[in-house]
Amino acid sequence: MRAGNLDRVIEIQRRTTGLNLYGTPVETWTTFATMRAQLLKNATDDREGARGHTTDAVLTFRMYYFASLSLDDRLLYQGQQYEITGITEIGRRVGVDIACGRTG
User: Per the count of CB atoms within 10 A, which of 29, 41, 70, 92 is most buried?
Assistant: First the structure.
């Protein structure tokens, strides 16, 4: 993996719980890390499901290894939120490929 190929900036967000003005627990997303990444694949997925015919944006990013990354996190790229659907380790803690789909 060459550093010159990491030309995109992504934010890794993690779900946290805070309190609102009335003391009620509220789930929010906070930025956990900001990383440089390479966009490997930008595709669309057409499928027929329970919601009818849908078209989803599917992205695959490559970045340096990040130990605490999990499927419960999400990515923020160019103002869009993406749910992490797969994490594949490259080599022995050299890097990771992250497959994600657009949410919202």
Answer: 29
Q: Among all chains, which residue has been given the structure tokens 């919202």?
A: 104
DSSP per-residue letters across 69-100: --TT-EEEETTEEEEEEEEEEETTTTEEEEEE
Angstrom distance (rounded) from CA 44 to CA 29:
25
The helix or strand, by DSSP H or E, that contains position 67, with its residue range, turns out to be none
- The β-bridge partners of 43 are 58
Angle at 94 between CA 85 and CA 44, to 5 degrees: 30
Report the predicted TM-score, pTM, of the whole model to 2 decimal places: 0.78
* Measured distance CA(32)–CA(12) in Å, rounded: 6
